[in-house]
Amino acid sequence: MENNDTNAHADHGNAPKRIVVLLSGSGSNLQALIDAQQNAFFNGKIVCVISNRPDAYGLTRAQQANIETLSLDHKAYNTREQYDAELAKAIENTKPDLIILAGFMRILTPEFVAKFKGKLLNIHPSLLPKYQGLHTHQRALDAKDSEHGVSVHFVTEELDGGPVILQAKVPIFDGDTAEDLAARVHEQEHRIYPLVTKWFCQDRLLMQNDSAVLDNNKLPQQGYASE
Q: Are the beta carbons of 224 and 136 closer than 8 angstroms?
């Protein structure tokens, strides 16, 4: 996949984009973003990592990289709306340009999504629109698909339904387990999430009329294709 570095030098005159990452688990995608940031791959700064699970290892990864963390336990709130209102307040305090969902296992309320529309990115382990929701690897195997993959997309009110920006495909081999497939997909996740983040930080990527637009071109349903 090409890195599209033609506009790389355009970054330097601009202040780094302020990035907030939301996660619920081990934070392997967060680590890929931290590594990319430390290598100056994108002109952005992760200013806060927030988790709905106090024991999420992703918080430890952030602390090891000297990034501010916040644990906001969803179990302390009676309703999804109350939790999302508190989460939105915490995010707004960081003045973010971009909010990255990196394994954040919560369905967001329409009010939350509307507040941050165009600034919310998610990564989903399937070739959307296939296999929205959970257990995507097993579902691809059960369907006897020959390929599987991962999608980075803008978040809209529809679960896993926002416009796709970039996909990466992986082959499915005979005898594959869901774990085999997950490992193959993870490898691609760690490549494409920093790349999409870079495009956003270069002001090349935006959401317009519920479509993903890169370099002033509306992207097709499957997102950007380098082929």
A: no
How far apart, in whole angstroms, are the C-alpha atoms of residue 23 and residue 103? 5
In terms of Cβ atoms closer than 10 Å to its own Cβ (0-12, 13-18, 19+), residue 89 is exposed
All structural domains of the chain with their residue ranges: 17-218
| Helix-helix angle 28-38:57-64, to 10 degrees | 10
Q: Which residues are CB-contacts of 93 (< 8 A; sequence separation ≥ 6)?
A: none
Question: Rg for the chain (alpha carbons), in Å?
Answer: 17
Tell which CATH classification among 3.40.50.170, 3.40.50.140, 2.30.180.10, 3.40.50.300 matches the domain 17-218.
3.40.50.170
Sheet harboring 98-101: ordered strands across?
Answer: 69-71, 44-51, 17-23, 98-101, 120-124, 147-154, 164-171
Arithmetic mean of pLDDT, 199-224: 96
3 state DSSP class of 203: coil
**Chain segment 95-131, per-residue pLDDT in tens:** 999 999 999 999 999 999 999 999 999 999 999 999 9
pLDDT digits (tens, 9 = 90+) for 148-174: 999 999 999 998 899 999 999 999 999
126 token code pair: 């399937």
Pairwise CA distance, residues 43 & 64, whole Å: 21
In 3D space, the residue among 34, 67, 70 whose CA is nearest the CA of residue 53 turns out to be: 70
- Residues recognised as catalytic: 124
